Amino acid sequence: xxxAGEESSMEMHPSGDGRMIVALVILALLAxxxxxxxxxxxxxxxxxxxxxxxxxxxxxxxLRSR
Length: 66
Hints:
By secondary structure, the chain is mostly helical. The protein contains two helices and no strands. The chain has a domain at 27-64. It is elongated. The protein starts with 16 loop residues before the first helix and ends with a helix.
């Protein structure tokens, strides 16, 4: 647990790394769910394509904000 005097290593403000990490973890969990629950085919491929696009945008936005 973090005491009142300690700072968290994950910064949750818009330009912090914490939001990017959380977004990428959520996208990775969604990709695992797509892999485990959907039958292979067009809809699975489309879902992976969209998740990859969103992950790319998260990383690109982070690189652009530096």
